[in-house]
Amino acid sequence: MPETGAKRGSAWGGWGLIAFPMAVLTVFTLAPTAAGLALSVFEWDGSSAPVFIGARHYAGLLADERFGPALRNTLIFALAGVPLSVLAGFALALACDAPWFRGRAVVRTLLFLPQIVSVAATGLMWRWLLDGTGGALPGALRSAGIAAPDFLQAGWWPLASLIVIGVWRQAGFCMVLYLAALSNVSRSLYEAGRVDGAGSWGLLRHVTWPQAMPMTGFLTLTGLISALQVFDLVIVLVGDVESPATATLNVLVFREFRQGRLGYASAIGTMIFALTMTVTALGLLRPRARAAGRGGGA
Amino acid sequence: MSADDGNRGARAGRGRLWVCAALAFVTAAYAAPLLNMVAVSLRQASSAATPGLDPLPMIRDASGRSLARTSAAYWSTLGLDAARNYRDVWSGPGSDFPTYLRNSMLVALPSVAGAVVSSCLAAYGFARLRWRGREVLFLILLATLMLPQAVLMVPQYLLFRSAGLVGTFAPLWLPSCMAGAFSVFLLRQFFRTIPAELDEAARIDGCSHLGILWRVIVPLSRPAIALVALLQFVASWNDFLGPLLYLNHQDRYTLTLGLHLYLAQQNQVPWNLVMAASAITMAPVVVVYAFSRRFFTEGAATQGLKE
Asked: B97-304 in CATH: which number?
């Protein structure tokens, strides 16, 4: 009897407590997102009345010669950079997790640092190294008699530089989360594996890697979601320039937005959203669902 | 037998050596750009772009001879150069770092307060109370992690513009009050590890939900709350897109934006000054990180996430 009373009280209390955060969420995230998706079928400069134009922005995207390279750059950055960061994080966590390894705290602290350094400062550090005119690495290569490419301007180099810097930023973060996941793997699994005659490679393949799978799924999915939106790293590294070598989808959104083509900007944003959804749906749902199921059971 | 053992031991030893070498290499690769930033910020302009990670640059005296690194003249020149670099950046023409620093504080601190309060409220609602629609709403909250900023950006901008808030800090504060999905998730998991009997006892003593949250849950969840606060601080402090969109006057610029502007103003990049500016930007976060490292990396706050 008293339980029902408590429950009824809780129901109101529950709504009361989360009403404020949820109202903010609705006003500042959900509603603008819906509006953003809707805006992509309008022509609007932000001041005069919006004009409904149907799918014309999307047709315009196909004809826009900047769209193809931007899509390509975004996909390459995400699909090359994220798996590299996750695998590097896993390898680093394994190395750090060895029972005889003493310097864990130092490694963990240093490798996490890029996460807390602003992208603006990160971009500057790497420009010092890579800049074509006064950069340290081209300078060093030149003085060694090697013709240095312009790492931030020429051909595929800028994209490759972006990927390297992206991995540099993310790998330490992945390592820290993997270390937490590895500490949860039951020792008895390893012992059972050893009894069955598994070597260290077998244990890695059949115990550690599957046990860390939920974390791998989580890191890959969240990594891809943010990598598909890459913007600030590009801006601080190569500047706000119109370059098919480095422009990503989000850079295009920002440029269109700046020029007052709000509907078109939203259409490109919607493409990023569609990509995110596709990536989420493509097989990545599986490990996450497993992890969520386990969390729910606990 | 014993020979085999010895062989295996030697092999394990070699393996360890490789792992240590690899880790040392990676750690150095991570530390180098950061140390390098500080090192370059101490140099004279003429040697700032010199490659190499020499923390002690070559310094020439007036007649062009390089000074010995053991001489007093070397160290006094180094100190004066460094002081001049930082002074030039701090209040040089076209840059106003004291104002940027104040603005960054004005953006970050209210955001932290808003994020902590709203996440605690929401996490308590999700962790402790049973109500219709709880699971659905929680899923929606988690799904917001997937929303790209790009879709949000334009309507959010129009919303703040119609409210007349562009150019103020409000567009940077308000979204952080919306109980970010990750913070709520983290706190919810942490709150669940606190025994429910404590709530019951407090309720019998006449505590309301707010009372239970404030008197029982919050004091027991300090590590997780600290982590949420720190993540928000770092996110607000380092935010680039938000200030770029909303702050249109240099008086309101934050450090990240000021740093970008500072670089954009220079024709020939004076690397020593730019690095000094970066170091100024980074220093507060690095200090915060140094004091709170264990929350970030040692799992004190994430224990709730371990299933």
From this structure: 1.10.3720.10
